[in-house]
Write a structure and sequence with these properties.
- The protein is α/β, with parallel strands linked by helices.
- The protein is built from 14 helices and eight strands.
- The chain has helices at about 5-25, 40-50, 60, 65-75, 85-95, 100-115, 120-135, 165-175, 190-205, 220-230, 250-265, 285-295, 315-320, 345-350, and strands spanning about 150-155, 180-185, 210, 235-240, 270-280, 300-305, 325-330, 340.
- Strand 2, helix 9 (about 190-205) and strand 3 form a beta-alpha-beta unit.
- Helix 5 (about 85-95) packs antiparallel against helix 6, helix 10 runs parallel beside helix 11 (about 250-265) and helix 12 packs parallel to helix 13 (about 315-320).
- It is elongated, with a radius of gyration of 25 Å.
- It binds guanosine-5'-triphosphate and magnesium ion.
Length: about 350
């Protein structure tokens, strides 16, 4: 016989089960969750396999800062180091946003070391300035990676417009390419557009976003997001926060509350608090850091928009004043334009020593 009836019944059964499974999978998208296409791990693996668009290099991204700092320094010491050149150097450092305190410190160090080490030739003096500036940058202590507990919760803080949400999108991309599962938490409940912006990054990266309507309690949205990530075995939660509330006190109180509430779920959470600063705002970045240090102490800094500014010198001032590690720098608006901060590459790029 051509068709065995038993075989036909078996085939029909298999088909029915397959259809049922497909329908269930479609219906199973949880509420409040955005864009989960298939298993998250599968999506991560797929992205890792596709590979990355070429990230912006330090050298390219820092072209304006380099033009400001390095080009002006070149040739400065052709007549050695005297009072007039001291003033010129002061002007160059200040206009690169190295800041008054750090500029004074650099000048003092330069005087001291050039005397002690009998350096008076132009190349030697330039190398000393570079060395002194580089000495303000914290030695790379390795990245604070995800610990034993999952999810590893990273809270983004900073005033409005500095690039918190964009950095979350970039970090989601970065973690995914390293094989981690990611969930985004829309803790900026102050503006409806903020939730939409985060959802769009979630869509772009194919990662879930936990959000509620604007006006919801930020701490409870973040708590729910972390609980959901834990239940789903997700590796990293990237939590957005508002940059502006009715006033500064409200903002600081909200951040403190977020810290308290997240610690209820996991005493170590948030495991990282990244203070995002717009490098283009120069010395304002210093006063913002001082303010945020009074509330929820940042564990590291992210300097954004270094591609668009000639004021990269602010990094030296931030490092010297606060001693906080600079974790990442933003060198553009694309998902690939976030680079882990590396002092050597930064100094080389800002002084134009490599065309990497
Ligand atoms: N050129 C450049 N633009 C950036 C960078 N990072 C962020 N931006 C842009 O800065 C603008 C503000 O970024 P957001 O991520 O919305 O800033 P935010 O801190 O979340 O702002 P609020 O939600 O209002 O507090 C956007 O247009 C981003 O594309 C960067 O590294 N380079
Ligand atoms: Mg935002």
């Amino acid at each position: 016989m051509l068709f065995d009836p038993l075989l036909l019944i078996g085939l029909a059964l298999v088909l029915a089960v397959a259809c049922w499974l497909l329908i269930r999978r479609k219906e199973n998208t949880p509420e409040q969750t955005h864009s989960i296409h298939g298993s998250e791990r599968e999506a991560v693996a797929k992205r890792a396999a596709i590979g990355l668009a070429e990230p912006t290099s330090f050298f390219k991204g820092l072209s304006r800062s380099r033009a400001q700092l390095s080009s002006s320094l070149r040739g400065l010491f052709s007549d050695g180091f005297n009072e007039e050149i001291r003033e010129d150097l002061e002007g160059i450092l200040l206009s690169s946003d190295v800041g008054v305190d750090t500029t004074d410190w650099v000048l003092e160090k330069l005087e001291q070391r050039s005397r002690q080490e009998s350096v008076s030739d132009p190349d030697g003096l330039l190398a000393l300035v570079k060395e002194i500036l580089a000495s303000t940058l914290p030695v790379s202590e390795g990245t604070a990676e995800e610990g034993a507990t999952t999810p590893h919760v990273i809270l983004m803080i900073g005033v409005n417009g500095v690039g918190k949400t964009t950095t979350i999108g970039k970090l989601a991309h970065r973690y995914q390419t390293r094989g981690k599962t990611v969930l985004l938490a829309a803790g900026d409940t102050f503006r409806a557009a903020a939730v939409e912006q985060l959802k769009s990054w979630g869509e772009q990266n194919g990662v879930p976003v936990i959000a509620q309507d604007s006006g919801a309690d930020s701490a409870s949205v973040l708590y729910d997001a972390c609980a959901s990530a834990r239940a789903r075995g997700i590796d990293v939660v990237l939590a957005d926060t508002a940059g502006r509330l009715q006033n500064k006190t409200n903002l600081m109180n909200e951040l403190e509350k977020i810290g308290r509430v997240l610690a209820k779920l996991d005493i170590g959470a948030p495991h990282e608090v990244l203070l995002v600063l717009d490098a283009g705002t120069g010395q304002n970045a210093i006063s913002q850091t001082r303010e945020f240090m009074k509330t929820i102490r940042p564990t590291g800094l992210v300097l954004t928009k270094l591609d668009g500014t000639a004021r990269g010198g602010v990094i030296f001032a931030l490092s010297r004043e606060f001693g906080l590690p600079i974790r990442y720098v933003g060198l553009g608006e694309r998902a690939e334009d976030l680079r882990p901060f590396d002092a050597t590459s930064f100094v080389d790029a800002i002084f134009g020593e490599t065309g990497e």
